[in-house]
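$ ./design --mode recover --in tokens.txt
reading tokens...
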């Protein structure tokens, strides 16, 4: 099967997108705020360089606290940078950017206005005549699938319908640039999936009412399904760590060749905040066979605790609600969710996690039974753990230097990530009592009770 290449460049070294015109450019943009009581300053963004070309869909991907929304507002001219320059259509941005329309996470509709009046709001501010406002508003409302709701008020609409009004209000302005700030995160998962698909279809059809799009998100699927380029932000302070170009054909599906590999590459970059993005993604084509899918770096205690929490709630629960109860970001749950899915203990559909029969059995088992169940699942579903266990069984001394396994992993992962993958595999294997690790000698070996099965 042919592999899908991934073109990765560090942003400051990225080549222009063909010969397309530049719509917006940010150069060395920084943003800092004074701390209370004269305790210094807090730097949110540092030396941001980015370019948006005509005809491209760009995703700005970063975890909470990376300054994504702050950067978006600077580019839109809603707040000024502390230093640096933003240029839009060849002119410095020194106030609200006339080339930009925005779609917000919070919908930002005026409750006393009807759908049509909300959509017409920007046109009215521009002095567009009433009949022209009406014609363009109705056209935009129809485009987002709200025909027949022109006279409804926001309180009569669902969350998804409110976000459609936000899209129509942006579309009616016919902007050069459409900015979308976490537009799907305030919706239930099914509604978000439908709306994301409709945005993707509009873009792929070539009749999108904006020349380019900049999407701010923390969701990797949003970025891979929609974007031509993904800019990965670091945090503390926010900075552009690197860029991933996505050449998958449209329309895109999660099951298409190359999708999971690109998602894995971005996942590795997001979970290795201090690593070089280019090194993390370089050589991903060598991993297309997926001999060793990346292991989520999750401790077994955390996975077990997650499964117990879901079991206490009837065996199925909304991920967002679970994160809210635990007072943590949903992003921080995904390491444990990914591990539970990989091991076959849980499934996640439409933002809802549910235990599998194996997951129920694991939660209800005593310590010995849970280890046995974990051992079976790891051998069946985790290639790296199975590879280490089988290699040790095939060794005459039933032990091997850990460097051997690192050398193998170096063919599949960057050096730092190879080390982390081995550490995770060793923790899982030790819990399952498939093998042991001698730290003094840096060697892996079979447990004493397994030596009878090793070659003489």
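writing sequence...
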């Amino acid at each position: 099967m042919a592999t899908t290449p991934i073109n990765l460049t560090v942003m400051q070294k990225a080549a222009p997108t063909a010969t397309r015109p530049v719509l917006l450019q940010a150069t060395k943009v920084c943003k800092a705020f004074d701390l209370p009581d004269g305790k210094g300053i807090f730097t949110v963004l540092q030396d941001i360089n980015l370019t948006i070309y005509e005809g491209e869909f760009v995703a700005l991907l970063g975890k909470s606290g990376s300054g994504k929304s702050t950067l978006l507002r600077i580019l839109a001219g809603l707040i000024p940078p502390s230093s640096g320059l933003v240029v839009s259509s060849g002119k410095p941005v020194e106030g609200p950017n006339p080339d930009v329309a925005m779609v917000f996470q919070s919908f930002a509709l005026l409750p006393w206005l009807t759908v049509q009046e909300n959509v017409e709001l920007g046109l009215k501010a521009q002095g567009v005549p009433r009949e022209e406002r009406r014609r363009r508003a109705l056209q935009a409302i129809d485009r987002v699938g709200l025909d027949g709701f022109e006279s409804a008020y926001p309180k009569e609409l669902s969350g998804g319908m409110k976000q459609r009004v936000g899209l129509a209000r942006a579309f009616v302005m016919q902007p050069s640039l459409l900015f979308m700030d976490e537009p799907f995160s305030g919706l239930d998962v099914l509604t978000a999936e439908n709306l994301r698909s409709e945005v993707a279809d509009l873009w792929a059809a070539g009749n999108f009412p904006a020349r380019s799009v900049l999407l701010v998100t923390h969701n990797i699927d949003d970025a891979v399904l929609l974007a031509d380029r993904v800019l990965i932000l670091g945090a503390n302070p926010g900075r552009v760590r690197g860029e991933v170009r996505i050449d998958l054909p449209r329309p895109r599906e999660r099951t298409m060749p190359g999708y999971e590999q690109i998602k894995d590459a971005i996942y590795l970059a997001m979970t290795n905040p201090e690593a070089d993005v280019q090194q993390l993604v370089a050589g991903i084509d060598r991993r297309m066979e997926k001999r060793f899918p990346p292991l989520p770096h999750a401790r077994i205690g955390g996975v077990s605790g997650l499964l117990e929490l879901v079991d206490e709630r009837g065996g199925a629960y909304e991920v967002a609600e679970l994160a809210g109860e635990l007072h943590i970001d949903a992003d921080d749950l995904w390491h444990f969710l990914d591990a539970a899915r990989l091991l076959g203990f849980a499934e996640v559909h439409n933002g809802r996690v549910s235990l599998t029969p194996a997951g129920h059995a694991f939660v209800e088992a005593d310590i010995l039974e849970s280890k046995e169940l974990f051992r079976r699942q790891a051998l069946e579903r985790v290639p790296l753990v199975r590879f280490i266990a089988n290699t040790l069984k095939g060794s005459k001394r039933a032990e091997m230097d850990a460097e051997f396994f690192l050398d193998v992993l170096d063919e599949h992962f960057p050096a730092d990530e190879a080390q982390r993958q081995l550490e995770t595999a060793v923790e899982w294997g030790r819990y399952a009592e498939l093998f042991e690790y001698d730290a003094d000698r840096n060697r892996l070996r079979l447990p004493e009770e397994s030596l009878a099965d090793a070659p003489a």
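exit 0
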